[in-house]
Design brief:
Layout (H helix, E strand, L loop, with lengths): L1 E9 L2 E9 L9 E10 L1 H7 L16 E9 L9 E5 L14 E4 L4 E3 L6 H23 L9 E3 L5 H12 L4 E5 L5 H7 L3 E4 L16 E6 L3 H9 L1 E9 L13 H5 L3 E4 L7 H14 L2 H7 E4 L4 H9 L6 E5 L3
Parallel strand pairs: 8-9, 8-11, 9-10, 11-12, 12-13, 14-15
Antiparallel strand pairs: 1-2, 3-4, 3-6, 3-15, 4-5, 5-7
Helix pairs in contact: 1-9, 2-3, 2-7
Length: 328
């Protein structure tokens, strides 16, 4: 038996409870994993609170990320004792996820834990950090170089933003971090931001289709009006990697930045990313993300903390990366 956070639906409302499950309760899959750590992402906050229509079938175990040791395997790539990571593939939404002591999943969804990266640090990275690296890789593939100019990160104090600021700084980019929380300025500067941009500067609808060129690249976790503003401020040939919608999913803009400045808007999907690119991104994270900075982002948590933290992350009150210890 092992502890799990289970969601049930009653009268149209989602209820959370802590329960004891057995392996027989788990869904089908060819690999059984003893979960060591999970984490908390914005999407987890939505699931925990029954928002977004992400979960259709209850009862349900949430948690879109986990890391742990293989206990049983019918998959040719994995054997008992292997350390593995899971992010994406709609685990924690359609398939039961990582907020339990054990998980049974498809081996094709797993990635080996990179050498030199501890399980705890892997979940400090999680979907947020994995998404950040995919965004950096997309910007680089579209011509971003360290001498191109300043790179803006919006929602910079959140999970995706924190890792993005740290990675970009480590790679030699000049980083501008946008946030509305003054108490995070020192945190972001320590991660490598050389400029802090008040999110209020980007919060009102742009008054014209093109504004002064400011950014060679951008990793945008906000969407909505913020993204519309950023597009008007991109340098010629610059690219925006869109990774989130904390500020809304509607984009009211014009085609002018794309036609007159050759701006690229790049959609970043971390859920269904093919295995080869997943492994490449995780290898780069293990090699290029400064682990001391990563440790400074970590907020320690247990399963018992998740009902509270699930609301806080939706309210923008969580800084950095929550690491959930399943053995605590």
């Amino acid at each position: 038996m092992f502890k799990a956070l289970l969601l049930r639906e009653a009268d149209g409302k989602v209820e959370q409870s802590f329960v004891e499950l057995s392996e027989d309760d788990l869904p089908e899959g060819d690999v059984l994993v003893a979960v060591e750590y999970s984490t908390l992402n914005y999407k987890d906050g939505l699931v925990l609170n029954g928002l977004g229509g992400l979960v259709r079938n209850y009862p349900h175990v949430p948690g879109i990320d986990f890391v742990g040791s293989v206990e049983q395997s019918e998959h040719p790539d994995y054997k008992p004792g292997d350390k593995v990571i899971l992010t994406g593939w709609r685990v924690g939404e359609v398939h039961w996820g990582g907020y339990a002591g054990k998980a049974r999943v498809k081996g094709d969804w797993l990635v080996p834990l990179p050498e030199g990266l501890s399980p705890r640090r892997a979940m400090a990275i999680g979907t947020a950090g994995f998404t950040s690296m995919l965004a950096v890789m997309a910007l680089e593939a579209h011509g971003l170089k360290t001498d191109s100019g300043s790179v803006l990160v919006t929602g910079a104090a959140g999970g995706v933003g924190s890792v993005a600021v740290s990675i970009l700084h480590t790679l030699g980019y000049q980083v501008a971090a946008s946030t509305g929380r003054a108490e995070t300025h020192a945190y972001l500067t320590d991660l490598g931001a050389s400029e802090i941009v008040d999110r209020a500067e980007l919060a009102e609808a742009p008054s014209r289709p093109l504004n002064k060129e400011r950014w060679a690249g951008c990793i945008d976790a906000v969407g909505g009006t913020t993204l519309a503003n950023v597009l008007t401020q991109m340098k010629y040939g610059g690219s925006v990697a869109a990774v989130g919608l904390a500020g809304g999913n509607k984009l009211q803009t014009t085609v002018i930045p794309f036609l007159l400045r050759g701006v690229n808007l790049l959609g970043i999907d971390s859920v269904m990313k093919p295995a080869a690119e997943r492994r490449r991104a995780w290898a780069r994270l293990a090699a290029e993300l400064p682990l001391d900075k990563l440790d400074g982002m970590i907020v320690e948590a247990t399963l018992d903390d998740l009902p509270r933290l699930g609301g806080e992350i939706l309210a923008g009150k969580v800084r950095g990366r929550v690491v959930v210890d399943l053995n605590a």
